[in-house]
Amino acid sequence: MFTDPKYYPMRNVICYFLVLLSLQSYAQERSPLTLWYEQPAGEVWTNALPIGNGKLGAMVYGNVENELIQLNEHTVWSGGPNRNDNPDALAALPEIRRLIFEGKQKEAEELASKTIQTKKSNGQKFQPVGDLNIAFEGHTTFTNYRRELDIERAVSKVTYEVDGVVYTREAIASFAENVIAVHLTASKPGMISFIASMTTPQPNASIALNSDNELAISGTTTDHEGVKGKIKFKSLTKIKNIGGKLTSTGTSIAVKNADEATIYIAIATNFNNYLDLEGDENSRAKGFLVNATTQSFNDLLKTNLVDYQNYFNRVSLSLGETDASKLPTDERLRNFRTGNDPSLVSLYYQYGRYLLISSSQPGGQPANLQGIWNKEMSPPWDSKYTININAQMNYWPAEKTNLAELHEPFLKMVSEMAEAGEETARVMYGARGWMAHHNTDIWRITGPVDAIFWGIWSGGGAWTSQHLWDHFQYSGDMEYLKSIYPILKGAAMFYVDFLVEHPDKPWLVVNPGTSPENAPAAHDGSSLDAGTTMDNQLVFDAFSTVIQASELLKIDQAFADTLQLMRDQLPPMQIGKHGQLQEWLDDIDDPNDHHRHISHLYGLYPSNQISPLRTPELYSASKNTLIQRGDVSTGWSMGWKVNWWARMLDGNHAYKLIQNQLSPVGSNQGGGGSYNNLFDAHPPFQIDGNFGCTSGITEMLVQSANGEIHLLPALPDVWQDGSITGIRAKGGFEVVELDWEDGQIEKLVIKSNIGGNLRLRVPNSLLLENGLKEASGSNPNPFYQVPVTADPIVSPQAKIIPPNLGETSVYDLNTNAGEIYEIVSK
Ligand code: FUC
């Protein structure tokens, strides 16, 4: 009908009218799961909004006249394949052990600094690729500005008006085509004019326009600490315009009077894996770009919605909504502590899931300290993987919030550390199996880095391998268990050789050990010790998982027997004179110590060695420890505390920590909080706090620990009504729907994927129908076997506070694989 050119203007008018209409209806239907702002990000990176596909990350500033999109690619790291073991450790080990046993920690530390600490790389840096700059001439004065990130659709969007024309920019990170795509439109035809250019902070890189009219950045990453930079990267940017004219000059591309334009950015490197850099960054980048540019922005968007929502839509959370939710996100953040804005919690919760989907995808690198978003050449802590808490915390939400596939990059990293860490175990400690210290990077270093009281910790293998076990426990996939058994076994084997007899006490202990990053005054501020509580708990778990796995797989009985014997000789947990859970082997904790790491509560969460229901004395000690350490802390530490208080079944205290987390950075007595873009503030930005809090909110509503599924275990007073869908529990169960009112379950639907006994602990009575019966004896389901924690040693001065728990009922239901059960309240 509109083929005659003379109708074109009319067609355009109709089209733009329709666009405006749909813009308006879109505005009205705006998803509540949107972060939005009335101002551009300006110069502040933590105002910008993150998009990502697990391989590419971008921060969209939404600046009007000069838009800035900062770019990352997951494998752009300094350095190249390298190891950082210190072989001098082996000869010095007996002397270091002797000094520690004799209480000469400072002397031991001095010797260990020279012989154990690495003399090589302390880890390499995750680095940015560059920036896309888009200059819009004349867009100096604007009105009706809005900048948003719709996390239900994974689209960043900016709209504003200049001289009666509404301009819209949308940006996505395409999962299918591996590009960042930016779409520029206006409410009137012919109004899209801009100049696009690239910049990069990488010193060994050049920017040029190639023969295909693409803006190319070609570079090699930097050397660091004597390790040569060997990642070659290529970024290609192409612009497709509809209407108007495209010209290129030097290192920029200008579009004039177009109706719309799409900017496609592909980035690739030569990285194949931590040992192999034989890939071709040029053909890879070109391939992504060629494929992506055959599609319009809307086609890319359509596919992306399906790909993204396949993950995102598995879980929903509703805690109610008030008028407070109508305000821009930064204002909601400012008001949260004093106001009533429950849907900011559900937004923040889902943002954690959004960030995991965007920064961790199968085949990619795991989310690092900043996920996949970093603009600094030398980011805080190199933006690498701190494995004495932070990297693990990133993956706490993965299984339970129904994103198990996204655990893969981390699990892969653990299997690579298991390869690399075999040499570390052998060369440094003369031990079989594998181990890692407190950090790793893209090169999977496993040697000890940074200052002595961080670096010497040996638990990296024991802790990270628990994630493989967890992945199995949620799915029940026996083939998977078989495939990971050697890694679990290797982590345990290390301790079979590394544990030593304590000279004065009847225990096997880790020596040298630490309790991550803390150092008691009683040891002259040295963190080295033997048999610290966290080390004991980690060895307990490393051994217990292999004992359980060998039983399930019916293999390796003799090894499991050895582990059982050794496990019985680990020091039990101890309750000290201040009523605290002892962090160290001796009762030397300072009740005024507010250190951010409370590593000895690893046993409470993520492990399951302490529980108000099973180990009341240890519950009491954990409570005292949590109170003595206080609430104010760095971002990730607050995130951990939400999980801990949830496991303590104290919803109101967990909520207090959420209030701290959802406070603007700087307003928390020196502790962490959130930036305007809801990134967690350590400070500085560290993504673990986002993930930790998302995990903790789940733990407040559904726990699958303690030999049962506990529903609404830690409901705060302010969430008496709500609903959550799609939460996974161990043993292949899924809480398809859980609705509650006045703190009582209204509707409960559970799917059993692999069958077996479903043991439920709930706050109210359920109807005994369709096979549901009151629970008796221990749960026969193999995924709910809880290794028995030894009775603690209690100081005569310790005051034990018995748990004061709400009433609950416990039921059993024998389930069949693949069936869905609706369970009804009385
Ligand atoms: C550990 C923590 C710090 C920070 C760093 C990345 O060293 O103690 O607080 O989170 O990791």
From TrEMBL:
Gene3D superfamilies: 1.50.10.10, putative glycoside hydrolase family protein from bacillus halodurans (2.70.98.50). Residues 297-701 form the Glycosyl hydrolase family 95 catalytic domain. GO terms for biological process: carbohydrate metabolic process. InterPro entries: 6-hairpin_glycosidase_sf (IPR008928), 6hp_glycosidase-like_sf (IPR012341), AFCA-like_C (IPR049053), Alpha-L-fucosidase (IPR016518), GH95_cat (IPR054363), GH95_N_dom (IPR027414). One of its GO terms (molecular function) is alpha-L-fucosidase activity. Signal peptide: none annotated. It comes from the Bacteria. Pfam families: Glyco_hyd_65N_2 (PF14498), Glyco_hydro_95_C (PF21307), Glyco_hydro_95_cat (PF22124). Residues 35-273 form the Glycosyl hydrolase family 95 N-terminal domain. Residues 703-774 form the Alpha fucosidase A-like C-terminal domain. This is Alpha-L-fucosidase 2. It comes from Algoriphagus machipongonensis.
